[in-house]
Design brief:
This protein has helices at about 1-90, 170-185; strands at about 100-105, 110-120, 125-135, 140-150, 185-190, 200-210, 220-230. It is an alpha+beta fold. Helix 1 (about 1-90) runs parallel beside helix 2 (about 170-185). The radius of gyration is 43 Å and the shape is elongated.
Length: about 240
C-alpha cells in the first residue's frame, strides 16, 4: 500500500512543480514584455527629443546667420552713427534762448562748461556773450572757440525717414542726410589768449553774421585748448 501511495503522489508533486514553473515563466514573460514596451516608448521619446533639439539648433543657427548678415549690412552705417555720436560730444548744441549749461569735450579730452548769458543783434549779425567754465585745477590758455549755425533745424534731416531705426538703409540715409546738413553749416572762429583759470569762469563774446537771431534754428560750439599748465608741487619728497 505504501508503494502505491508513493507511486500516486510522485506524479502529482511533479505536476504541481511544472505548473508552478509555468506560472513563473508567464509572469516573467509579462514582465519582460512590459519592460520592452517601456524601453521602446522611452526610445521613441528620445528620438522625438533629438528631432526637437536638431530643429532648435538649426533655427538658432539660422537666426545667428541672419543677425551676422544684418550686422554686416549695417556695419558702415553703425560706424558712421558712432562717429556722429562722438562728434556730438565735441560739438554740442547750445541754446541761444535759454540759460542752461552745456558740456563741451575739448580736443584734449577734458570737458569744459558753457553757459550763454546774452544774445543781442549787432549790425547784420548776432552778438553772443557766454561764459566758459573750468572745473579743473589747471590753467587753460590760448583757447579757440568755434560756433556753427544754420537757419534749418538738424531734425529736418531725419524727419522724412520712414524706415525702422535698425534698418541698414534707414541708418545710411540718416547719416548721409546728417552729414550733408553738417557740411552746409556756416561758422565763426575766435581765439582767446586770456587763460581760463582753475575753478572759474571766463567771459567770451562772439559775433556770427550775416544772420538774425530769429533765423538761427541750430547752433553748436566747439572748443580747442592749445595750452594746459599745472603748478609744480612744492611738497618735499
Amino acid at each position: 500500500m505504501n508503494i502505491l501511495m508513493r507511486t500516486t503522489t510522485l506524479p502529482l508533486i511533479l505536476g504541481l512543480c511544472f505548473f508552478g514553473q509555468g506560472c513563473k515563466d508567464d509572469e516573467a514573460r509579462k514582465e519582460l514584455a512590459t519592460m520592452r514596451d517601456g524601453m521602446q516608448k522611452f526610445a521613441s521619446q528620445l528620438q522625438e527629443r533629438d528631432v526637437e533639439i536638431v530643429t532648435s539648433v538649426k533655427s538658432q543657427r539660422e537666426a545667428i546667420i541672419e543677425l551676422q548678415n544684418r550686422l554686416a549690412e549695417a556695419g558702415p552705417a553703425m560706424k558712421a552713427m558712432l562717429s556722429l555720436l562722438q562728434l556730438a560730444e565735441k560739438q554740442p548744441n547750445i541754446d541761444l534762448h535759454g540759460r542752461g549749461f552745456t558740456s563741451v569735450k575739448t580736443s584734449s579730452g577734458l570737458t569744459l562748461i558753457v553757459i550763454v548769458d546774452d544774445v543781442q543783434p549787432k549790425l547784420d549779425g548776432v552778438s553772443i556773450k557766454m561764459r566758459i567754465g573750468n572745473p579743473y585745477n589747471m590753467n587753460f590758455g590760448r583757447t579757440i572757440v568755434k560756433l556753427r549755425w544754420s537757419t534749418e533745424y538738424s531734425g529736418e534731416a531725419i524727419s522724412s525717414l520712414t524706415g525702422k531705426p535698425d534698418d541698414p538703409d534707414t541708418l545710411k540715409q540718416w547719416t548721409d542726410n546728417y552729414n550733408e546738413f553738417m557740411g552746409s553749416l556756416k561758422s565763426a572762429t575766435q581765439q582767446f589768449n586770456t587763460p581760463i583759470r582753475p575753478g572759474s569762469w571766463s567771459e567770451v563774446d562772439l559775433v556770427i553774421a550775416p544772420v538774425s537771431l530769429s533765423q538761427i534754428k541750430y547752433c553748436s560750439i566747439e572748443i580747442d585748448v592749445e595750452e594746459i599748465s599745472l603748478m609744480l608741487s612744492t611738497t618735499p619728497q
